[in-house]
Amino acid sequence: MALEFQILANTVSGGRRAVMTLPHQAVETPVFMPVGTAGTVKAVSQDVLESLGAEIILGNTYHLYLRPGHEAIRRMGGLHQFISWPRALLTDSGGFQVYSLAQLRKVTDEGVRFRSHLDGSSHFFTPEHSMDVQIALGADIAMAFDECTEYPAEKDRARESLRLTMNWALRSLDHFRAHQHDVPWHENLSGKTQSLFGIVQGGTYADLRRESAERLVEMDFDGYAIGGLSVGEPRHLTLEVIAEVLPYLPKDKPRYVMGVGYPEEIEQYAKLGVDMMDCVLPTRAARHGLLFTSEGRLNIKNRQYAEDQSPPDPACSCMVCGRYSRAYLRHLMQAGEALSATLNTIHNLSYYLGIMRRVREGLSQLPAVGSGLHA
Known catalytic residue: 278? Predict the structure, then answer.
């Protein structure tokens, strides 16, 4: 068994509350997933993530492949065991990171050759190799290998990227199905195994996005993601793409938008029917002193907070707002103290996770429609 997705409530606008049962954790959706690029959500420990209510986090295939290496992680029992995280994990395919190495990669039908950003060494990722790495890492959810389309992109370029992504999706799925029982923890969890999600691409072109979604649905993945967003396109286009694609994705399977977004955006997307989202924004912004609050965005570095004894967000009940002042957080930033990143990150993650919690609680209690059990 891979995952079970049970819808509990629906709204007229398309939003839904559900429970996604994975081998390591039952995850309430809609959910925001903190990004743990190299086996860590930057600046915070796993026990803190648990206390914040995080039920699922991300690991990055590209970075973990380069260091410490997927085979080393396999030998240590998989990523859950290696990073001491007992709850759910999702790994990306490495496609987006390879896309970001525009000057260091060469794309062919077979796969992508790229140079490591660490030492310049040459590597070759194919859909099959991406699956092997993700199976070795052993996350509850793996992602099909895709080619991310940049913005802006001419339609011919987006069409060619879509062709590659569809071919790679089928190759990913075939290889995954043949080897998914090789996951490190398979024997310890009563035969449960990973799930594989396909990724919808097609740039900002509605017909290409529809084609991508329909072809992926025919392949019958365990869930579906909308990729190729947050790559520089205007926010209204992000929303248009999501709204265009959602009706073509199965209602009885999880729907995931990758790499989004600001607090008001993730709330809007969840109410449209997006079940899963992730973004580095809350952690990255925290390290630069930007806090998300009920009163708007707060740049804690500003001089006006030098003697401000109020909490970062008076409406927030997180451990940071319950104990520390804006003046102290500003001092930590000014002094370059490592604790600054930790406290700022805890607050921002609490804020993001709190948004999803409130959305789940606020969804209308309409009769549930559809549920799925996917092997």
Answer: yes
